[in-house]
Amino acid sequence: MPPKVKITKEDIIDAAIDLIRESGMDALNARAIAKKLGCSTQPIFSNYATMEELKAEVMRAADAIYQQYIENGMKDPAYPPYKASGMAYIRFAREENQLFKLLFMRDRSNEEIKEERESLEGLLKIIASSTGLTMDEAYMFHLEMWVFVHGIATMIATEYLQWEWDMISRMMTDSYEGMKARYMTREEK
């Protein structure tokens, strides 16, 4: 009798991520993962007590892929760091559209949404140092820019738009410069 092949948690998560990339989150179930791995569902439920536990781990893996896009994107010398983060967000939406939809376009009505301002501190410091804004102003600036960038990313992920990088870059610069001018000239209350 040949030795049994051990299916690891990493194997299961990798298969789940591949399945989502191919068919979206709705295709994720134990049978589909088992089929992809060429095994029964037994190794899946030996490693994960419930599908909810597995899905939570898949979300963490998808977020790690996204974070790597942002980290790599911010090293791109073609753009200033803050713009590079937005371009990386849009690149993730284009290249990993199903993972983008999973992370940023899912129904969150049953989730507790927490403000994650601390995780934005690096970006807020970049904005503050390049514009002279306070950290609170930089936070609002970022939220406004993020809505714009998320709109482009969403239209790219759903294939509503097929814009070239030069056009996206120009639009991001125009939006950034326009908001920066507004922040610099607005009257204080």
In percent, how helical is the residue content? 55-70%
SSE topology string: HHHHHHHHH
Count of individual helical segments: 9
List segments where confidence is low: pLDDT < 50 over at least 5 consecutive residues. Answer: none
- What is the residue-averaged pLDDT? 92
Shape: elongated
Describe this structure in words.
The chain is elongated. Helix 4 packs across helix 6 and helix 7 (121-131) packs across helix 8 (135-157). The protein contains 9 helices and no strands. The model has no long low-confidence stretch (mean pLDDT 92). The longest helix has 23 residues, at 51-73. It has 189 residues and is an all-alpha fold.
Task: Output the keywords.
9 helices; single chain; about 70% helix; mainly alpha; about 190 residues
Topology:
Elements: H1 9-23, H2 30-37, H3 42-47, H4 51-73, H5 81-95, H6 97-104, H7 121-131, H8 135-157, H9 165-185
Helix pairs in contact: 1-2, 4-5, 4-6, 5-6, 5-8, 7-8, 8-9
At a glance:
The protein contains nine helices and no strands.
